[in-house]
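Researcher: Let's continue the batch. This sequence belongs to Thioredoxin, and it's 110 residues. Same format as the previous ones, please.
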Amino acid sequence: MITTAGVGEVTDATFTDEVLAAEVPVLVVFTADWCPSCRRLAPVLGAVAEELGGRLAIVQIDADANPRTPVDYGVLALPTLVLFRDGRPVASLVGARSRRRLLQELADAV
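Model: Same format as before. Here are the structure tokens for Thioredoxin:
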């Protein structure tokens, strides 16, 4: 798992409690260790987590180690970013992106 400051980790077992029951919007990043685009996205996620503080939680889930959740949300490519609000997915983004672009895409959620 790619570790990034400010970005939490969830599993199939903790997904409901940490994402669906969260009081703030949660950006879930579906990733894998072998994914080069996921590694490029990691520092962007850290910067966004720092910038948005308590207004948005960012967590990642290893799609290889936790296959149930990616299947439940139709994840077909990595990295896939799914924004959850009030326990429901409200936006889905596929692929690495810049900090500026990600902040623009998240602007309505936070």
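Researcher: Any comment?
Model: The beta strands are 8-9, 26-31, 57-62, 80-85, 88-94.
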